[in-house]
């Protein structure tokens, strides 16, 4: 059973015992969680290992730090700025930490972004040439080879550390980090998806895509 399924079961158990509606029972458990229960309201997009490797801290440590910060009630932008300024986490990853924290703490629906749209994230360390992958993402013909059947458009500067590509109903961000031994870590965040159903579709797509580009 996943943590999200476990949390939903606890909500239903509380509804049975107290007669509360779902939202009231859910909020009561989230408040209890803030007081020291380690339950998560929902799973973040990125795994604990991924966020720890990128930022030096796992999800439980980020939750403790942000739960203890008085400014967390000021909203998404304030939290992301605090993560960036106080802990030196760069822009893309400070957003990832913030969104993950908000989901763990029950401050937003799973995969929901500050503007109400949804995002799908996947990451994997693969055997590939990082420079070749960047070149193909920047180039129109290269993207046609990478994403057959899709119209795409580069939405960032070619020199940007994180490349943004319009594909399907949204925009995918690619963070490419070379690793020892001819491997590369590719983290993808597909943003501006209109519904949770699209999240499921694109998480599956990106999982298959990462497997397909892995030459190992």
What does this structure look like?
- The chain has 216 residues and is α+β, with helices and mostly antiparallel strands.
- The protein has 9 helices and 5 strands, in the order ααααααβααββββα.
- It has helices at 3-18, 22-34, 48-55, 59-67, 76-87, 91-104, 130-138, 140-146, 196-213, and strands at 118-127, 152-154, 162-167, 171-179, 183-193.
- It has a 5-stranded antiparallel β-sheet, covered by helices on one side.
- Helix 4 (59-67) packs across helix 6 and helix 5 crosses helix 6.
- The protein is globular and about 60 Å long.
- The model has no long low-confidence stretch (mean pLDDT 87).
SSE map:
Layout (H helix, E strand, L loop, with lengths): L2 H16 L3 H13 L13 H8 L3 H9 L8 H12 L3 H14 L13 E10 L2 H9 L1 H7 L5 E3 L7 E6 L3 E9 L3 E11 L2 H18 L3
Antiparallel strand pairs: 1-5, 2-3, 3-4, 4-5
Précis, in short:
The protein is of the alpha+beta class and 216 residues long. The protein contains nine helices and five strands.
């Amino acid at each position: 059973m996943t943590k999200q399924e476990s949390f939903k079961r606890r909500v239903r158990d509380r509804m049975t015992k107290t007669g509360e509606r779902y939202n009231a029972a859910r909020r009561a458990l989230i408040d209890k969680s803030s007081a020291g229960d380690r339950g998560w309201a929902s799973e973040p997009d990125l795994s604990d290992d991924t966020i720890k490797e990128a930022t030096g801290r796992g999800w439980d440590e980020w939750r403790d730090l942000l739960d203890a910060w008085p400014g967390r009630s000021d909203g998404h932008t304030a939290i992301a700025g605090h993560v960036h300024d106080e802990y030196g986490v760069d822009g893309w990853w400070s957003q990832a930490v913030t969104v993950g924290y908000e989901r763990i703490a029950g401050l937003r629906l799973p995969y929901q972004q500050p503007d109400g749209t949804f995002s799908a994230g996947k990451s994997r360390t693969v055997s590939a040439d990082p420079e070749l992958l960047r070149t193909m993402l920047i180039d129109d013909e290269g993207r046609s080879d990478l994403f057959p059947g899709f119209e795409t458009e580069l939405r960032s500067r070619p020199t940007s550390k994180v490349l943004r590509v319009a594909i399907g109903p949204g925009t995918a961000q690619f963070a490419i980090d070379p690793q020892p031994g001819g491997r590369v870590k590719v983290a993808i965040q597909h943003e501006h998806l209109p519904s949770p159903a699209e999240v499921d579709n694109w998480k599956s797509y990106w999982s298959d895509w990462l497997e397909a580009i892995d030459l190992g």
